[in-house]
Amino acid sequence: MKTRTTAIATVMLAVALAIAAPVTAQTLPSDATAKPAVAAQPAADDASSASGPQRWIFENRNYFNPLVAEPRAAQITLLALAWSKEFPYQVEPGSRRVWDVSLGKEIPIVGWESARLVNDIRSSGEWGAGLWIPVSFHMVEDFKDDSNPIINTDYRFGAQVKFRRDFDAGRLGLKLQAGHESTHLGDEFTLHASSTHPDFERINVSYEYWEYGVSWEGEITARSIAWKVVHGGTRVIGDGYYSTSLLEPGGRTIPASRRRYEPSAGVEITSTDGEGWHPYLSIDARLRNIYDYHRASPDVPEDRQWSVGGVLGLRNEATKPNERGVPDLILRGYWGVNPHGQFRSQRSHWQIGVGIFVPM
Predict the structure, then answer these.
(1) Residues contacting residue 225 through CB under 8 Å, at least 6 positions apart
(2) Which pLDDT does position 41 carry in this prediction?
(3) Residues 22-32: tens digit of each pLDDT
(4) How far apart are the first and last CA of the chain?
(5) CB contact burial 174-212 (16+ within 10 A = b; e otherwise)
(6) HSE value, Cβ hemisphere, 13 Å, CA-based, for 342
């Protein structure tokens, strides 16, 4: 499965480089050695348009940014003070205090655009496209059971192509991603669970997937509000979300997952009134499959449940758009299918906490 994902990522990278390469081979104007004009002058705009698409390498671009509330995006989020519903196979019953940490980044590789687009400034008719490599891991740690075990860690990586097109009415964003996810239970959690619960099972959740996204952004100038709506979906590649052979002696097998697709939708609203700290609201909703390892037959489809995450945040708009790494203060909540590894068999899981989100 990893070989297939590597091949897909290699093909996507080769295509992006092949398209971007001719851009640098364009013939420069005869006066290319002259002192460049000031960007604000109309003549500079005309020269930029005449020179054709511009290539960039290893530069951040706002073509299609994930929602802050998206549960498994390649972003940095730390909920240092959070509470959640009990996970399956835990020793101490009841709700508990947890840490929920996501560390990730969508790494910009190469792209091209009709002009040097400035982050967060829309210009009708401009467009851009590029290749990113998203890499992330997502960890949850328990503070109720003995030794504060790490419950689960999810690892994700892939390759994605993004496209942006500006219009008078708003900005269109598109994303296509091929990725791999591998999940792992914590060692101490596994030891406690296996000694306490005779029915404990270790499920190898590991799969490849396609993911697409479509976004539309705009502003309500009279009310100093910026907004974004997003639709997306993921489809698993191959045999399903998990291995049918359990990670235990005896070689017991379980039914393969049948459902392959999970749609999603979301919205983000941000205040743009002046400088200082601005509030924003981010909501992500997705129809998630509930993994069922004990179905009577592989032909029986799994149940599904709408799962909703929300973030209420404060962002310091006194920082410039290119000053990355300045954290937001957030209150984050989630209700629905447990998003962590093999625990996606648990419905109606909840979590709420305060922490920081780091725009990158």
Answers:
(1) 219, 269, 270, 271, 272
(2) 40
(3) 433 333 333 33
(4) 30
(5) bbebbbbbbbbbbebbbebbeeeeeeebebbbbbbbbbe
(6) 20
**Nearest of 17, 265, 268 to residue 129 by alpha carbon:** 17
10 Å CB burial of residue 30 (0-12, 13-18, 19+) is exposed
291/342 Cα distance (integer angstroms): 8
Which residues lie across from 281 on neighbouring strands? 269, 312
Integer-rounded Cα radius of gyration of the chain: 23
Q: What is the 3-state secondary structure (H, E, C) of the chain?
A: CHHHHHHHHHHHHHHHHHHHHHHHCCCCCCCCCCCCCCCCCHHHHHHHHHCCCEEEECCCCCCCCCCCCCCCCCCEEEEEEEEECCCCCCCCCCCEEEEEEEEEEEEEEEEEECCCCCCCCCCCCCEEEEEEEEEEEEEEEECCCCCCCEEEEEEEEEEEEEEEEECCCCEEEEEEEEEEEEEEECHHHHHHHHHHCCCCCCCCEEEEEEEEEEEEEEEEHHHCEEEEEEEEEEEEECCCCECCECCCCCCCECCCCCCCEEEEEEEEEEECCCCCEEEEEEEEEEEEECCCCCCCCCCCCCCEEEEEEEEEEEEECCCCCCCCCCCEEEEEEEEECCCCHHHHHCCCEEEEEEEEEECC
- Chain position carrying tokens 């290119």: 322
214 within 8 A of 264, measured Cβ to Cβ = no
**pTM of the predicted model, to two decimals?**
0.84
Beta bridge partners of 131: 110, 161
User: Is the Cα dihedral 22, 28, 33, 34 positive or negative?
Assistant: negative
116/99 Cα distance (integer angstroms): 40
Per-residue confidence at 211, pLDDT binned at 50, 70, 90? very high
Instruction: Assess whether pLDDT exceeds 70 at residue 232.
Output: yes
Residue 107 above 80 pLDDT? yes
Residues 6+ apart with CB under 8 A from 165: 126, 127, 171, 172
